[in-house]
Amino acid sequence: MKQLYMLFTIVLMVWFNPVRALGERPDVTISSAPAWASKQSLPALPESLRKPLHYRLVDRQVSDAAGVTAVSHNRFVFTDAAGVQEGSTVRVRFNPAYQQLVFHNVTVWRDGKAVYQLAAQDIKVINAEEDQKNNMYLGLFDALILLQDIRVGDELDYSYSLSGSNPVLGERFSYFDNLGWGVAVDLLSFKLTLPDDKQVAHKVFGNLNTQVQHQQSEGTQTYTVKVENSIAHTVENELPGWFSPFPYIQFTEFNSWLEVQSWAAELFKVKTEHSPELTAYINELKALPKQQAIEQAITFVQDEIRYLGLELGVNSHQPNMPHQVFEKRFGDCKDKTLLLNTLLRALDVDAQPALVSTDKRAYISEYLPTHSAFNHVITHFTLDGEAYWVDPTINYQGSRLSSLHQPDYGSALLVDSQSDALTEVNIKPARHGIDINEMIVAPDYVSPVQWRIESQYYGWQAERLRYQLASSQKKVFQEHSLNYYAQFYPGVQVKTPITFSDNRRDNVITVVESYWVPDFWQPGENGAAEFYLSAGNVSQYVKLPQTVRRKQPLAKAYPLSLSQRVTLLMPADVDFSALAYQKSFADPYVQIDSAMEYDRRRVTFHARYEALQEFVPVEAVPAHLSKIKQANKYSGFGGTVMEVETNPNYTLFQDFIQQLENKTKMKFVGESL
Fold first, then answer.
1. What is the mean pLDDT of residues 31-51?
2. Residues whose CB falls within 8 Å of the CB of residue 392, separated by 6 or more in sequence, listed in order
């Protein structure tokens, strides 16, 4: 159920024909549009057309009178070569397990004459499983019409319908649709046709001025929206997942979240007996102390049951039985959740499924009640009065309950709660970030420095690193690190191999690296030596976004706390104390600190970054980015040591290096000394 193809929430998955969904070419037909689908009157073309495509019409009409059918009608003009390149393929994605795709019209107009009309042999159907790398299989196909001889000035008009409904979702109607796009449209229209006895509620998001017309006549009712000269809606970068840049409309037949909960509770009932193998494993857990058994059950489901989503037919929402998942050793979020809940309940733990939205999170409360609001399910349980939210699909988490990273999904619908309200996902505070301590030892101003880096990863940062280490060899990690550091010091060489220490109980990983850096010192004027201490891990978050003048909120990586301390042990006491400083840049969204201090031969630069919220609202963005810009000026510290060539030790060591290189015919990098 996780990562479903969504139209702002979730595409409704339905009944499954296994042969067709696993590869048999589905049938796509051509016929006239349904009688209930009305034709739209187009305004005349304006004198000035938009490039590269001028959209005249985007029309969507949906009927639930005899099963759900959606008719789409689009018309646009090719206004330059880029538009011809972009728009000369008609592509419609569908799921033949439950949907029937019918083309009604594909016509190319040139100078008022139809120069192309669709023929059955022009329809190509290809597999469209794009999420296989994430072990998600949805049974999707694309119907393609590759238009030929398209020229600037041609006009394409095409329409099609998708029919189908999902028994697992019941008969309650739920639907979302766009009321705006990333392109301007002369006429954007939407119409919903329902039986007159079907009671639905609707809500518009993103444009409160949108007028929804409701009419009833002769046993049917319609909801209609028309937007003339619809503007192009900008999609800015770094948006929070819950934010939609497009206006949209929701329809739902559910009257309360309790009705949604009743629908979900039926899906998650365990309707079979446990297998002997599952029963034996439960008995093993019962023999352990209770908390240890709980921790072991969570780790087992997260790590030993691999994630594999066969989102086909009823299994888009209905989980497989626990004994099946236990024996096959794979499942998606709902399968893994039901298995974990079964194990926890056998340990007398009150566990239940919790439906969540990984995108909308807490903003799901803005929706009218609907089962279409959710795209993920996790486990909720209480132990000794404390609530826990566990995502069984996350691998390599901390193994102790107190150190377990609990994702903050904002709001959840507890399946077994018998409540008419969403539940706030209260997550206990925890450290999620990286602490980096670097020591650079410079014996003089010419030989390679020794560079030691010790990094400690906490929370979800530790879990991400743990997964990376399990997915690749450590030498690959070492090579990636070396290439990254070579961007700053091209001559960097490994002094001792990288080491990893994983304290999984506390969810902390310690990484120790050691390098030689022959090009640390840079020559300056008049025999000076220059250096620069950088907190690169912190500074990557202290930068302006691609879109600075924003009309949309700015997302922040959250929760996240970073600290990076770089200490240079100088060859001699060169007093930098006059340049010492402490700076702090804070607002309600981030805390950024920067400091330089000098103590005898030690120059220390320290940078710290902490995200305080997951996004910055539009009205606060200018002031926030001003803080970021100021803080960016203090993302490192550079210093200069004057006239180092007058130092006798410098001259002696330089002569020694020259003699060594002459004898060995090799460039000195310091590792042999």
1. 92
2. 298, 301, 302, 305, 333, 336, 337, 339, 340, 378, 379
